[in-house]
Each structure stands twice: as structure tokens, then as C-alpha cells.
Write a structure and sequence with these properties.
With 69 residues, this protein is an alpha+beta fold. The protein has one helix and four strands; from the N terminus they run H-E-E-E-E. The longest helix has 14 residues.
């Protein structure tokens, strides 16, 4: 993902959740996804999907059972 895409994703997340605390980082040696953090907490990955000439982004987040207690 480009720096411009990362910035757009970060701005979008901050806008829809009404905060300035999201951070989006490039992944080492993997260019089709980025890491998403809220402050210092890792939340998940966003993958860039390209199909039939269209580009979409999918957010994948794992919630551990112990985190729900």
C-alpha cells in the first residue's frame, strides 16, 4: 500500500470513530496490507483487495476470549 492509501485509511477510521487515536503502519516486506493500532494497542490488519478492476479494503480483527472477561 502507498503512503497515500495509509493516510486515507487512517483519516477514515478516525472520522467514523470520532477520534484521532488510530495509527496505520506499513508491514515489513508485505505490501498488500497494513497494521491498525488504536493508540498503542494492535487491533488488526487491513488487506487491499483488487478484483475486476475495483479496489476494496478488508479489515480483519481477532478478539481473544480472555480480552472479553
Amino acid at each position: 500500500m502507498t503512503d497515500q492509501e495509509l493516510e486515507k485509511i487512517r483519516n477514515y477510521l478516525n472520522k467514523i470513530f470520532n477520534t484521532d487515536d488510530f495509527i496505520v503502519k506499513k508491514r515489513k516486506s508485505i505490501s498488500d496490507s497494513c497494521e491498525v493500532y488504536h493508540k498503542d494497542e494492535f487491533l488488526g490488519l487491513i488487506y487491499k483487495e483488487s478484483e475486476d478492476g475495483e479496489e476494496d479494503y478488508q479489515f480483519h480483527m481477532t478478539i481473544l476470549k480472555e480480552d472479553l472477561q
